[in-house]
Amino acid sequence: MLINIKDFKADVNKISLNFSQNIQDVNDFPDVVKFLSPVSFTGKVEKTDDFYTVTGKIHTDVCMNCVLCLEPVDISIDCDFFQKYANVDTKEDETEFFQGDCIDIFKALKDTIICEIPMKVLCREDCKGLCPKCGKNLNLGDCTCDNTKYNESFKSLRAMFNLDEEV
Ligand SMILES: [Zn+2]
Ligand SMILES: [Zn+2]
Fold first, then answer.
1. N or C terminus of the chain: which is more exposed, having fewer CB within 10 Å?
2. What is the pTM of this model?
3. Are 57 and 111 in a shared domain?
């Protein structure tokens, strides 16, 4: 996901961008099991003096696990991207410094996606979770265990994740 600043000419101060990248390594992405589609970016980079401002839209799909029953859930991520770059020291916190002829937007793109990943994912609003004794997914039906106690702790588990919060 490289932008070559040599593509800017005296009469060119705006370049369209269209990137797509597969991600195999999910270690940097909290709670993501895998990426179901490449990370795609559509946008533009505009040059103003020493600044290169990249704006656009990110799309990808990830697989996560329901926090209660651990079943896989597909999550679609769509978000805006904005990052300023400069190859001189601008003393601006929000501006990323780069050296050479290329700006690699991948790191900033990755950070934006990480912020968009939900903290908690549910397979469905009223997910019943797993039986703590036999491990059965209670969404698929009841088991024969006595879970009177569990029902109480399950409520506190939902409370811990704020799943019953009024929105
Ligand atoms: Zn679930
Ligand atoms: Zn059970």
1. C
2. 0.83
3. yes
